[in-house]
Amino acid sequence: MLKIKRIKDGRKNVDQVKELLDSRSGDNLAKYRDVAADVLKKVKAEGDQAVLDYTSRFDGVEFDASELEVTEAEIKAALKEVDTDFIEALKNAAVNIEEFHAEQKDKSWQKQKKPGIITGQVCRPLKKAGVYVPGGRAAYPSSVLMTVIPAKVAGVEEIIMLTPPDKEGKVSPVILAAAEIAGADRIFKVGGAQAVAAAAYGTETIPGVDIIVGPGNIYVSMAKELVFGQVKIDMIAGPSEIMIMAEKDSNPAYIAADLMSQAEHDPLASSILVTDAPELIGEVERELEKQIEKMSKKDIIKESLENFGLMIEVENQKAAMEMINLVAPEHLELAVKNPFELLPAVENAGSIFLGEYTPEPIGDYYAGPNHVLPTNSTARFFSPLSVRDFVKYSGFIHYSKEALKEASGDVICLAEGEGLDAHANSVRIRKEN
Ligand SMILES: NC(=O)c1ccc[n+]([C@@H]2O[C@H](COP(=O)([O-])OP(=O)(O)OC[C@H]3O[C@@H](n4cnc5c(N)ncnc54)[C@H](O)[C@@H]3O)[C@@H](O)[C@H]2O)c1
Ligand SMILES: N[C@H](CO)Cc1c[nH]c[nH+]1
Ligand SMILES: [Zn+2]
To answer: In the prediction, which pLDDT does 158 show?
Structure first.
């Protein structure tokens, strides 16, 4: 019998919702953050040797440094092993993902504001990107496409993929096939916080990068948070989340299936239903009991649902929207008849799935928008992974002698107002000579 926490009147008992959110964030993550911090420190100081030690400890594989990089021969062998239908499906997904991300491409621009004044912005791709592809509890070829394709569209020079080895010291053939399709340049068999550390600081074998992107478990997420500033990071894309808003006529079998789809990622994943139809909750619970037994990852699903699942009753759709914007879920399904009517009220969500025939996995694999998404309520301020993450911008300015003369009064006034005489002098000297 599954025991999922139920909140009777969401609006009145909002503290109980906040309690669940807190249990997956902030100080409650200290024990994972501490592990990640130790790993970062050791890899920074000892390079390859620390990476190899952690790979032995956490992944159970004994390597020497020369075995960390995936070889051409391994890629060729993998391609032969993968089913042609799977390759075809990957290629079809890659087309959709590429098409979607091509729309995000930014251009450099300049404009003449008035005679003698030109301002603009140069947009350049980052040189080296490290993409993390999870591989602990499941292999994620879809995450290869979702991370490498936007980097390619942005024009990144070198894409370095990091992914954990399996117990035999291999990378899953499906991951290698996806890397080949998407165009990763180098692949290293290293996972967890040690992968993030290696990419952030560089080791004798693994090159340091300018940005680290991609999803991962709590150790990966904490490590990314800690190396921010040493390198750029995309966001915190940790254990998966889904929130479903449903109404009286929503299909409980679909809702149960979708809640489980994210719960199966990780015992730390979180699945939430919010509805103004209390009777639906019982129906979804019965469906969960029925469907869970058929799932290969039922133990993970159960642990996730019991620890981080929620069924929230609210009085109306407005209150449901308040809950959604408070939770700021990674994935939001609006499993209602008129989802587009509700869309403008959604302020905080990583990716939004509209209508009963748009299950979350269509976005995980196929539709085109990125599946690397902010978790832990960080959809309040983070966005999905995009081409923009892989570029940087420089502003530029040109003033003619006459244009500077015209602006000099204001600039000198502002500089003197800040008490910065040397700044004022830099402008005055040109005005007077
Ligand atoms: N938010 C997103 O966009 C998104 C997308 C896809 C997947 N995900 C999430 O990615 C995660 C994938 O997790 P995973 O575990 O399957 O693979 P993973 O590759 O993220 O993590 C596996 C690595 O974690 C390290 N590790 C495991 N236990 C450890 C311990 N006790 N101490 C220190 N390090 C340890 C190991 O080095 C191992 O290689 C899931 O949480 C899933 O929900 C998130
Ligand atoms: N749902 C995950 C993001 O939280 C992405 C994914 C990849 N494969 C299956 N699911
Ligand atoms: Zn998923």
So the answer is: 98
Q: Is the CB of 270 under 6 A from ligand 2?
A: no
Probe target for ligand 2 pocket from 371, 376, 382, 385, with the most ligand atoms within 8 Å of CB = 371
Query: Which among 239, 242, 237 is positioned nearest to 332, based on CA atoms?
Result: 242
pTM comes to 0.97
pLDDT attached to residue 393: 97
Residue 390 DSSP class: G
Kind and range of the H or E run holding 186: strand 186-189
109 three-class SS: strand
Q: Please report the pLDDT score of residue 1 as a whole number.
A: 86
Residue closest by Cα to atom 1 of ligand 2: 364
In this structure, are residues 263 and 4 in contact, taking their beta carbons and an 8 Å threshold? no
Reply yes or no on whether the pLDDT at 432 is more than 90: no
Nearest to 122 by CA among 340, 397, 380: 397
Instruction: State which fold the 32-236 domain adopts.
Output: Rossmann fold (3.40.50)
Looking at residue 433, its pLDDT comes to 79
Confidence class for position 141, pLDDT limits 50, 70, 90:
very high
Asked if residues 198 and 103 have their Cβ atoms less than 8 Å apart, the reply is no
Architecture of domain 5-24+239-368: 3-Layer(aba) Sandwich (3.40)
Share of the chain above pLDDT 90, in %: 98
CA distance 34 to 215: 19
Asked whether the predicted pLDDT for residue 96 surpasses 90, the reply is yes
Any idea where the domains of the chain sit in the sequence?
Answer: 5-24+239-368, 32-236, 400-432
Q: Angle formed by the axes of helices 48-59 and 30-46, to 10°?
A: 140
Could you list the active site residues? 330-331
5-24+239-368 and 32-236 share one CATH topology?
yes
CB 159 within 8 A of CB 190: no
